[in-house]
Specification:
heterodimer; A: alpha/beta; B: Fumarate Reductase Iron-sulfur Protein, Chain B, domain 2; FAD/NAD(P)-binding domain; 5-stranded parallel β-sheet; 16 strands; binds flavin-adenine dinucleotide; binds iron/sulfur cluster; binds FE2/S2 (inorganic) cluster
């Protein structure tokens, strides 16, 4: 029997995008779309919030899709099958509010496609017509296309460099849908903050209710530190317990971007010292 | 703990008259010099040497009706434990202590003795009180360092099982006492480490983590199972726990940080004390980048507040290398709720007290990082509901203070997660605390008990412990009798005197 936190499978989805299946049967049984876990790799590790992209209750595993952006995610990538993340806590955050609306567009940008997947599934199960838009910088970074095909009635793909699908941004594709098929009844947008910001600006123009999933810097993930503060409609909310999903039309995205960047210098220092260490010890 | 016992001197001290006892000066506790400790996280006071402890214990005149005991929230038999120390019987001292207080190494360090036992010690009327807290710490440290820590005897299996939510002082204490009664006990802890505020809040230099760990080790060796990473209300509800356990104790503390709602409060570099301290203590960010969790590298830090939490934050900022640390408090120093010892230590370490000041807004740079804070001066008016003089802003006294980090330490409330997910659990609407009968520690929900900060709002370690003990008595009574609707535990009904 594996232990909670054990890596059961570790695959590479794209350059610097890894997919982990982690043994965590209790969380797998309980989680709902939109929720996340916090992982601590080992005793030196920080608490890393990661969305639960999928779960297999029979196998007792949860799926995490993680992009290597700094030291923690780079260290994570070195975990091999059979190794164990010291701590996995969850499911955290409020689950996505799913209801039958009619036609719902799910926008997934980059690795945001992974957390968008369970939402698309749940929306479809609730009887919605689901159109998914997958956006990425280039073809190699379009992940989980097959899974999204299965979870959606229609899938549209776009890349920044035009190497796959439409040459353009997810907002262009969304605008196309609105123009051709009429206003969808709801939009979900998950991905880089700038993407969510521009999707929300567009849908606001058309008064389409829009849900975004925010990823402020977190520590505990239980409402204890307030590090995850976000401003929603002029009010301060705690991203980890009040969110991570919020009404995109009310989010102060610029504040979020700035708060996310607060540790930039230290993160770079941390990554550099880690890479230096790796080179020196040839690991 | 060095220092040989001087047998001759001990014998002499045992024989002296009270008048002479009262002439012995209160014994100082050696500590790290301020200049040195500014640069490290090592504990500040070193603790008494054996002979110093004996001398201090001999100051106690063994009152017939000891005021100190009445002043102790859990009623430790203070003169009895001190008498044993005075006679050099340290083992006897710690055993006596542990009859009432299971966590003396912790309480000896963090209890506000100057507000409790020592405040009412008879000697305090004319001289300095007996250093009860230091002696408490001494016997506890002696026991640990001598390897004499006894694991309390566990009762024969009762066949009953209790779930405890939270591993702070309330949860740890209730667990110990329930195991003694032979019940199975499982603690569910949200974080990856045990101890609650003792581990994530109170800094190493005031309460070394190894001390908390050794207390937790006792709990573990008694057969209490501690499950980490279990956020009750998320992975499981209280109702789920009641399905598996015969009773549930909620000791989830007051971990929800308050903010003031000022403009600019969400700028980068503005922290709650909980976040600042958690990063530094629990996540050991002072050791970054060897550990992965970062914390602001600050030059000028303003800590808002005047309690222990504010002192801990300010003293942490000093140790993290800030050049200037201000403590911004809206009343005067007399009103500061922090312990005198902590305020003094903070000042010695160079924390600049900005009393009678209040922040009104924070100003940032183009990157959204805090750079300045606008303050206003305050003056004291008439006493308010708390009996302290109300601070009133002085019109036109606004000024700008340059800062690059702000730590908001104005208090914490209970986390609503458990109440929100537990049907039938009554909550005080204004304070967010779980309504709890403070004699029976019972909540409005059958089989669910509560204690510590979640029951009364942010308070003290010793009160949380006291609640844990009382809750264990009440849980034992409930598990034995099955009776729920009682106002008082048998034998604890109020008398004319206590009513
Ligand atoms: C609710 C939530 C869900 C998330 N889901 C995913 C996911 O499914 N897949 C994924 O790849 N990433 C996800 N993230 C982001 C992920 O947590 C960060 O990329 C990761 O912590 C970066 O750590 P690092 O040391 O590798 O990078 P660093 O170099 O430390 O940081 C890179 C950037 O990541 C962000 N970050 C750093 N530390 C944290 C932290 N403690 N909490 C949140 N963000 C941080 C910051 O914006 C920072 O600028 C999620 C974040 C949140 C809050
Ligand atoms: C910085 C600071 C300094 C202090 N200094 C002093 C001092 O010098 N002297 C003094 O007497 N008092 C001090 N206090 C107050 C004292 O620490 C508290 O009163 C005491 O710790 C309360 O104990 P507790 O057991 O009720 O809760 P806590 O110590 O808060 O422990 C609660 C535990 O429950 C866990 N928990 C919460 N929610 C859940 C959930 N949903 N599921 C599972 N687990 C959960 C938490 O993670 C935590 O481990 C200080 C407090 C702070 C913050
Ligand atoms: S009141 Fe002071 S002198 Fe009297 S018993 Fe207590 S500690 Fe000793
Ligand atoms: S991450 Fe600490 S309160 Fe949200």
């Amino acid at each position: 029997m594996p232990e909670t936190g054990e890596v059961i499978k570790n695959t590479i989805l794209a350059e610097k995008v890894n997919c982990y299946q982690v043994y965590a049967p209790a969380i797998a049984a309980k989680r709902m779309a939109g929720q996340f876990v916090i992982v601590r790799l080992d005793e030196e590790g920080e608490r890393i919030p990661l969305t639960i992209a999928d779960a297999d209750t029979a196998a007792g595993t949860i799926t995490l899709v993680v992009q290597e952006v700094g030291k923690s995610t780079a260290r994570m990538a070195r975990f091999k099958v059979g190794q164990k993340f010291t701590d996995v806590v969850g499911p955290l955050g409020t689950a996505t509010h799913i209801e039958k609306r009619g036609t719902v567009v799910v926008v997934g940008g980059g690795i945001g496609i992974a957390p968008a997947h369970p939402i698309a599934q749940a929306l479809r199960r609730a009887g919605n017509r689901v159109i998914s838009i997958l956006g990425a910088r280039s073809k190699d970074l379009v992940i989980m296309e097959a899974e999204m095909q299965k979870a959606s009635d229609e899938v549209l793909i776009c890349t920044d460099d035009g190497s796959y699908g439409v040459h353009g941004l997810v907002t262009d594709v969304l605008k196309g849908i609105i123009d051709k098929q009429g206003k969808p009844d709801q939009v979900f947008a998950i991905g880089p903050v700038v993407m969510m910001k521009f999707v929300s600006m567009l849908t606001k123009e058309f008064s389409i209710p829009t849900v975004v999933s925010l990823n402020p810097i977190m520590v505990d993930g239980t409402g204890m530190c307030g590090g995850c503060r976000v401003t929603i409609g002029g009010k301060t909310k705690f991203g980890c317990v009040d969110g991570p999903e919020f009404d995109g039309h009310l989010v102060d995205f610029d504040e979020l971007v700035q708060r996310q960047a607060f540790y930039r210098e230290q993160e770079q220092e941390s990554l550099a010292s880690f890479q230096h260490h790796c080179e020196r010890h040839k690991v | 703990m060095s220092g040989q016992l001087d047998q001759q001197e001990m014998a002499r001290l045992q024989g002296i008259k009270n008048k002479e006892r009262m002439k012995i000066p209160r014994q100082d506790m050696p500590e790290q010099p301020a200049a040195e400790r500014r640069k490290n996280f090592i504990e500040v006071p070193h603790g008494y040497a054996e002979m110093t402890a004996v001398i201090e214990a001999n100051r106690c005149i063994q009152c017939k009706k000891p005021a100190c005991r009445a002043g102790c929230p859990v009623g430790i038999d203070i003169p009895a434990f001190i008498a044993r120390v005075a006679a050099g019987d340290f083992e006897g001292g710690i055993r006596k202590m542990k009859e009432t207080n299971m966590l003396p190494a912790i309480c000896g360090r963090v209890c506000p003795q100057e507000e409790q036992c020592e405040k009412v010690c008879i000697l305090a009327k004319t001289k300095q009180p007996v250093a009860i807290g230091r002696l408490e710490r001494f016997v506890a440290d002696w026991e640990r360092e001598q390897g004499k820590v006894e694991i309390p005897a566990v009762g024969p299996p009762s066949g009953k099982s209790v779930g405890v939510v939270g591993s702070g002082p309330a949860g740890l204490t209730v667990a110990i006492d329930l195991r003694r009664a032979g019940h199975e006990v499982v603690i569910y802890e949200a974080l990856h480490a045990p101890g609650g505020v003792l581990i994530y809040g109170i800094p190493e230099f005031r309460l070394p983590k190894r001390i908390v760990h050794s207390e937790v080790e006792v709990v573990r060796r008694m057969g209490v199972e501690i499950r980490y990473n279990q956020v009750i209300g998320k992975i499981e509800t209280v109702a789920d726990l009641l399905g598996r356990h015969d009773a549930v104790f909620l000791g989830t503390g007051a971990g929800l940080p308050w903010f003031m709602g000022l403009p600019g409060e969400n700028l980068g570099g503005v922290y709650s004390a909980n976040e600042y301290l958690t990063r530094s203590n629990l996540m050991r960010a002072y050791d970054f980048p060897r550990v992965d969790t970062p914390i602001a590298k600050s030059r000028k830090v303003a800590v808002i507040g005047g309690g222990n939490v504010a002192m801990d934050s300010a003293r942490t900022a000093v140790r993290l290398g800030a050049e200037e640390v201000y403590l911004v408090y809206r009343r005067s120093e007399v009103e500061m709720p922090g312990r005198n010892e902590e305020i003094e230590h903070a000042k010695e370490e160079g924390v600049i007290m900005k009393i009678l000041h209040n922040p009104i807004r924070y100003l940032g740079d183009e990157k959204g990082r805090v750079r300045q804070m606008e303050c206003i001066r305050m003056e004291l008016g008439e006493p308010d509901a708390s009996g302290r003089r109300r601070p009133i802003p002085v019109a036109g006294s606004e000024f700008i203070l340059e800062v690059d980090t702000v730590v908001v330490a104005i208090g914490n409330g209970p986390n609503p997660l458990v109440p929100q997910t537990t049907e039938g659990l009554a909550v005080d609407a204004r304070r967010g605390t779980i309504k709890t009968n403070l004699n029976t520690m019972r909540t409005s929900k059958l089989g669910v008990f509560a204690g510590g900060d979640i029951a009364i709002g942010a308070a003290t370690v010793i009160l949380a412990m006291g609640h844990g003990r009382q809750a264990a008595r009440s849980i034992n009574h409930y598990l034995e009798t099955g009776k729920w609707e009682i106002e008082f535990l048998p034998g604890q009904e109020p008398t004319e005197e206590t009513r």
